[in-house]
Amino acid sequence: MEQPRDQFGRPLTDLRISVTDRCNFRCTFCMPEDRAYEFLPRAEVLSYEELIRLARLFVSRGVEKIRITGGEPLLRRDLSHLIEGLAGIAGVDDLALTTNGLLLPQRAPALRDAGLDRVTVSLHSLEAATFARLTGGRGDLDGVLRGIEAAAAAGLTPVKINAVVLRGQNEHEIEALARRFRGDDYVLRFIEYMDVGTLNDWDPESVVSAREIVDRIDRVLPLEPAPRRSPNDTALRYRYRDGGGEVGVIASISQPFCGDCSRARLSAEGRLYTCLFSAIGHDLKTPLREGADDAQLIERIDQIWGTRRDRYSEERADRLSQGRPGVAPRVEMFRIGG
């Protein structure tokens, strides 16, 4: 069966699976503390067995990389059971998890034993006051740093560190973060502040561009460009000229990469989103629970992907160039992960 391609010829190679919409942090650019949230009832959340079945079908259609997200995925009980099931699917070349890192000291060894390859930890500041502000007062900086160390000790390397940069809040830490996470055990990735969801009052003036980030690092730790590992990688890669590892920048605002996007996102309640900025998710849970067989579910997946025309970041760039940023309806990030 031919691999599905969307309306721009993009294949489906990456699947991001959200296992919960709950989080123990309240980061300002995702889930601000000053809002009220209604979370999914347990019965509406897909079971691990349902997730494993759907993942197997996605892999049969070309998916090679699977990433577990949230919310905060380590809040989900017995997550190692899901990891073990996903790791056992023939054709999964890369199995990763994105987390705020706080629970990694207790969970990292079991996750590795279950078959997890890597973790990505979100860490946007090394200063206690800034970290507390950006996480809505619920974060524990020392705990997250211990989590990063625990992941490295468990062999979940290289540990990726994701840092969203916001002008006037943490851009002064770019160099300090780069120094802290050099070496083969870590890959630091800076992320341009994006208009994900509708709750973060996004302002393009708060964006620190990839070019500025790279220039700041290069002045103190000289860099050279490195090639992408695969055509659909999200990060621009740079190597330290002294051999001290690499750093990446995700430039969704200043250098949109929609043309290479091959990622689908499955929410915790079984809705398939074909873009991080989608407004509508396609229901897979209902046919799954009503007894659809594998062939019917594959036909549904192929139909959704085959009609995909998403290119939000490129369209945003067009709007910004015309001085009209706009705010379109879209799913909140804590429901589908980053």
What does this structure look like?
It is a single chain. The chain has helices spanning about 50-60, 80-85, 105-115, 130-135, 140-155, 175-180, 210-220, 285-290, 295-305, 310-320, 335, and strands spanning about 15-20, 65-70, 95-100, 120, 160-165, 185-190, 225, 235-240, 245-250, 265, 270-275, 280-285. The chain has a single domain, classed as TIM Barrel. The radius of gyration is 19 Å and the shape is globular. A 12-stranded mixed beta sheet has the order 7-8-9-6-5-4-3-2-1-10-11-12. The mean pLDDT is about 95. The longest helix has 13 residues, at about 50-60. The two termini are about 30 Å apart. With about 350 residues, it is α/β, with parallel strands linked by helices. Helix 1 (about 50-60) packs parallel to helix 2 (about 80-85) and helix 3 (about 105-115) packs parallel to helix 5 (about 140-155). It contains 11 helices and 12 strands. It is about 30% helix and about 15% strand.
